[in-house]
Write a structure and sequence with these properties.
One of its GO terms (molecular function) is hydrolase activity, acting on carbon-nitrogen (but not peptide) bonds, in linear amides. With 253 residues, this protein is of the alpha/beta class. The chain contains seven helices and five strands. Helix 2 packs antiparallel against helix 6, helix 3 packs antiparallel against helix 6 and helix 4 packs across helix 5. The radius of gyration is 17 Å and the shape is globular. The structure holds zinc ion. Zinc ion binds next to loops.
């Protein structure tokens, strides 16, 4: 049982997963004839992020994925387990996935993706947020590093999950870099002093992946999620624009 924080730390686990999001998101351009990427700001339809829960002794976990399906595919199982134990989990998609479909793009697609991950969050019992950064255009710059630092601090995170920075997809890779570059800075008082620094550095963990160069993923912890697999599969079903409609390139690889 994971009733206490210490027990949870011991149990802390790497993340099961299995399905690689890359096949569905962010690869390729919208087809000619599809809705053009008008880039209607997602913010027009995005409710303000909920405030972080008050400290209550439970773990606080925040996961960063590049697109609104990455965290769900990589960590929905372990998130469901944490949430069921009363721990606080938040998924953040660092881009809005506004070109992640073969036949539509821009604001309408971004809002659709937001609605899908909100369904997933309700299934898992967690919070979710999408940053309004264009899909395929994420850069590991100072502005985005500060955004990641602020999110980790605001969540008062004990555990941070993200992609590794060696991934075929530039958005995945840059999320890995941004989180890596934020990992130390979250504790530095005069970096982003508008959000109070963390007194204790969180544990930073990578999502599992299948990339072999420059080095193969090596799991330090593995969590069985058999008991929550139905919730994870329900999330996949909720991501209908990705998994029923062929994603950014209609399923071509
Ligand atoms: Zn992705």
């Amino acid at each position: 049982m994971l009733g206490t924080r210490n027990e949870a730390w011991k149990w802390l686990a790497a993340l099961l997963v299995g399905i690689i999001c890359g096949a569905w998101c962010g690869r390729g351009e919208p087809r000619a004839g599809g809705e053009t990427a008008a880039h209607t700001p997602l913010a027009q339809a995005t409710p303000a992020a909920k405030p972080a829960p008050a400290p209550d002794g439970k773990l606080r976990v925040i996961a960063f994925g590049a697109h609104p399906d990455d965290c769900e595919l990589r960590a929905a199982g372990v998130a469901a387990k944490w949430a069921a134990l009363g721990h606080h989990v938040k998924f953040v998609s660092v881009t809005n996935c506004d070109i992640g479909h073969w036949g539509m793009a821009g604001g309408p697609l971004a809002r659709r993706r937001l609605a899908e991950v909100q369904k997933c969050a309700a299934i898992l019992g967690i919070q979710t947020e999408i940053l309004d950064i264009h899909d395929g255009e994420l850069l590991p710059n100072l502005e985005n590093r500060k955004a990641i630092v602020r999110l980790i601090r605001q969540w008062q995170a004990d555990i941070v999950l993200s992609h590794r920075p060696n991934d075929y997809h530039p958005d995945h890779r840059n999320v890995g870099l941004l989180v890596q570059d934020a990992a130390y800075m979250v504790t530095v008082p005069f970096f982003c002093p508008d959000v109070r620094h963390l007194e204790r550095n969180p544990v930073f963990l990578y999502f599992e992946d299948r990339f072999t160069k420059p080095n193969r993923f090596s799991a330090d912890m593995v969590v069985a999620v058999d008991d929550v697999i139905e919730k994870k599969l329900a999330c996949v079903e909720a991501l209908e624009s990705q998994f029923y409609e062929g994603g950014c390139n209609g399923g071509r690889t």
